[in-house]
Amino acid sequence: MNKVNKDDLEKMLDKHRLWVEGKEGGERLDLSGKDLRGLSFGSNLRGADLSNADMTGVEAPALKLKQADLNKTELDESNLKGANLSETQMNDATFIGADLRKANLDKTDATAAALSESDLSEVKNLKCRILAGDFIRANLDGADFRNCDLRGTIFREADAIGADFSGADLENASFENANLTNANFENCNLKNVDICGAKMDGINFEGAIIGKGWGACAGIHCMWTPPHGDDPCGQRP
Fold first, then answer.
1. Which residues are CB-neighbours of 94 under 8 A, at least 6 positions away?
2. Radius of gyration of the chain from Cα atoms?
3. Which long-range contacts (CB under 8 A, 24 or more apart) does 87-90 make?
């Protein structure tokens, strides 16, 4: 993997800025497969190709990455607090231990992305697509996952206090031992979801689609009124 030096990057960023603005002499930034560790990226990488790049540990808070290609990009331990990652392609990307607080991931496609132990508190993920993603031990407090496609995604041991999953498709997802206090699952698809050991005080399941036997395991602390008359948590408040 080739290392990009600072001077060359600055020239490429100038051309990319012209490209974003639709001006003559502009050229889309292509850093696919490059070693970008320790570099600064200005403020706007909209539409850039960063696929397969190594961006481990980058300091890029509030960076604009809308519509960028981040497929298979390594962003572990990176600081992307408040960054705009909306409409990006992030399939198989890794954000392990990354700071994504208050970032915007609206309409992001992040199938099989690894976000374990990352901080996504108050992140905005409207209509995102994260199939078979990994949020193990992630901080999702106050995160917004409304209307997302999260089928098969793992939220094991995650903190998701007050998170909003309303309208999301969570079929075959796992919330094993997660903290879902005051989380909102209104109108969700919760077929075959694993919530064994999850903490569920104040949770909202209004209108949710729940499969037979869902939640039928020990250790669940559940306080809610079942929307369809059955009691998948195995207890009634």
1. 73, 74, 75, 76, 113, 114
2. 20
3. 89/51
Helical (H) or strand (E) element with 7: helix 6-20
Q: What is the mean pLDDT of the chain?
A: 90
Provide the token pair at 78. 């990176």
The answer to whether residues 125 and 147 touch, using CB atoms and an 8 Å cutoff, is no
pTM: 0.88
DSSP state for residue 230 in the 8-state scheme: -
State the average pLDDT over residues 36-40: 93
CA distance linking residue 201 with residue 204, whole number of Å: 9
Q: What mean pLDDT is predicted for residues 106-129?
A: 96
Question: Taking Cα atoms as reference points, which of 49, 53, 95, 99 lies closest to residue 73?
Answer: 53
